[in-house]
Amino acid sequence: MENNKPTDPFDPMRCFSSDPVVRSLAMELYAGAAGLPIISPHGHVDPALFSDPDASFGSPADLFIIPTITLPHAVLAGSA
Questions:
Q1: Cβ(53)–Cβ(63) under 8 Å?
Q2: pTM
Q3: How far is CA 44 from CA 24, 47, 63, 74, in A?
Q4: Cα–Cα distance between 9 and 17 in angstroms, integer?
Q5: CA distances from 73 to 8, 25, 61, 78 (A)
Q6: ∠ Cα 22 42 24 (to 5°)
Q7: Are 49 and 60 in contact (CB under 8 A)?
Q8: What are the pLDDT tens digits along the chain (80 aa)?
């Protein structure tokens, strides 16, 4: 008899293949990475911030205020 029970949305295996060989490999890879921190620069962060222990983001003004002041000038100048 086939089980038509919906998958538990919180089942940690829900994203893995149903193929037993593929699932086994996926679970092994996941187990090795599951406890690691997520580092997701996605193009907006200078990679040096992740590789240089002395690098910093700077002050809140460096992060949030100065870029918003200079962006309109760059747009007006045609360089953005």
A1: no
A2: 0.39
A3: 35, 9, 11, 17
A4: 15
A5: 51, 52, 17, 9
A6: 10
A7: no
A8: 455 566 667 787 888 888 999 999 999 999 999 899 887 766 666 777 778 888 877 788 777 777 665 555 556 666 55
